[in-house]
Amino acid sequence: MRALVAARAREPVPPPHGDGPWPLAQPFRVGSLEMPNRVVQAPLAGIGNRVFRQQARRHGAGLVVSEMVAAHGIRHGNRRTRQMLELGQGESPVAIQVFGGDPDVMAEAARVVQDAGADMVDINMGCPVPKIMKTGAGASLLADPERGAAVVRAMADAVDIPVTVKMRRGLVPGDMDPAENARRFEAAGAAMITIHPRAAADEYSGTADHSISARVVKAVEIPVVISGDVMDAAGARDALEMTGAAGVMIGRAALGNPWVLGAIARGEADPRPDPAMVLDELIAFCEDIADLLGPDRSCHYLRKFHAWYLQGRDVPADEVQALMEDPTLDDALDRLRTIRAAA
Ligand SMILES: Cc1cc2nc3c(=O)[nH]c(=O)nc-3n(C[C@H](O)[C@H](O)[C@H](O)COP(=O)(O)O)c2cc1C
To answer: In the structure, which protein residues have their CB atom closer than 6 angstroms to any atom of ligand 1?
Structure first.
């Protein structure tokens, strides 16, 4: 059984037109920085901390991006925010994503991010959460593109590392031309655009319409990465071919399945590792997260990961549920080790 699983893991996915090198394995440049391949780990609020990013790089992502960090928090230098800027071994190339709507505050944040050692600083122009948008940050910058461009310009003037923008198509479907916005941000100094072609009001519903991404790619000279519903190597190949993008960003598909990052980078069918391998990975991840966040925060943080890793992987549903309810991380780790011993 294991041999069968391993054999399927190496199953190659044909490149477009059935010949030539695997396109996602090719390096790409942003400014003077070279990414070793075209797979980017998505920024994920409350998830994309240093341990998560190191794991994504280890599994084959060519670029990793932090969860969004508040520019105002950076200015005030609170402890949690400072911790979010700490980078780990083996992460580079890594981008720190910041959110805010004030050009001066964002420029100051960009300088701190550069001093922290990040290879790029990314601007969040996609967050649809009303609490964030009300402050003039996130996707609301798309509705005020002059200010969006002023933020890009202020940051690009403040630092030497590339300043990049991650944007949605607009606030509601059809309200604006994302290609026009992308052109403005490029003119203001952005070195790369990531387009998630849903509107803010869509949040994560429906499917990402990458014909919109293709229009953004055509509109600018800088590299464009596409984000939304890319699930596996074949999907990544098709999306790259359809849009002409420089790379694909992978968010939800890698939650509980970091192996998919390497599979996309190498052009392999979904690896579906066996349960023992999944449990080893999850246990190591829990231990690293405990070192980063301490016992209480890590217990809370890891709850959703138990389901992401173990659902549909031959682990009984009541065990997964119990893991999510264990009151301490030690309880959860004991339970995971017991499940592992039986796997
Ligand atoms: C839980 C969650 C948190 C997210 N946090 C961020 C964020 O901090 N910054 C950002 O630009 N996008 C964020 N996104 C959007 C993702 O980066 C990505 O664009 C979106 O999930 C679509 O890609 P996917 O289909 O590969 O998940 C988040 C998405 C999810 C599901």
So the answer is: 42-45, 47, 67-68, 97, 124, 126-127, 166, 196, 204, 227-230, 250-253
